[in-house]
Amino acid sequence: MSVSLEERLRYHPDPNRRAWSRSKRQVEARRRLIGDHVDLSGKRVVDLGCSGGYFGFALADTVSSYLGVDADEAVIERNRDAARQRSLTTLEFRRAAITPSFVRSLAPVDVALFLSVFHHILATSAAYDWNRPPDFDPFDLLHALRERADVLAFETGYPDEGFEWCERLPPMTPTPRAWVERVLREAGFRHIEVIPAGAARGPTDGLRRRIALAMGYARHPRPLGGRIAARVLQVDSRDNRDLFIARNGRP
Predict the structure, then answer these.
(1) Which of 113, 124, 223, 245 is the most buried (most CB within 10 A)?
(2) Is residue 227 part of a domain?
(3) Distant-in-sequence, close-in-space partners of 126: CB < 8 Å, separation ≥ 6
(4) Could you list the residue range(s) of the whole structural domain that residue 82 is in?
(5) CA 104, CA 164: separation in Å to the nearest integer?
(6) Maximum Cα–Cα distance for the chain, whole Å?
(7) Which tens digits make up the pLDDT trace of 200-213?
């Protein structure tokens, strides 16, 4: 695997460390943002592409059950060990490929988290061994999630983020935000709430991020100033993604 286990845990911090904020991404800010818009108390949650299981460990005392799914066997075993060490009986971790048939095999849940994974299914990447062209319709995954989850918290990569897989994404027109809204509605979700890029704020926010935001870092497509600011100031472009809350029933 091109991305090492240590590198993946820098993406989602290690729950055994106190300094959870030591992450490449503002994961705690995203968790708070989701919690501000979705009632997670006592809910059944599935987290597709859970990586280090950050959301499960953070929500262990809040949800009634959490299932974290990832194709990486090493990270899943590490998550299971961490949950056992902390006696977190509400957490379950399962190694599986994220496919429509797998999602449809799950029991219904209240909330599904599908964060920063869909673009790797739409566009193959050298970053992960599991990331190969799918033998299923990627958009059927969203249909399957609508069948199994009352609420979907969704985030995906955008073509202007500067990674090697961006050029292989389908055209997200007229804007990435409008494109995602459309595909979620086509999957059958009745209510879509868009939380704009840049809404998440974490303890690591500072002058660099504020300058980048002022230069258009949080707009899509990003203007030249925003792209330059992100590169020069080393602001993680993945924290520039919109968060979508899609619901089956009433908002």
Answers:
(1) 113
(2) no
(3) 2, 164
(4) 5-205+238-247
(5) 31
(6) 49
(7) 555 445 555 555 55
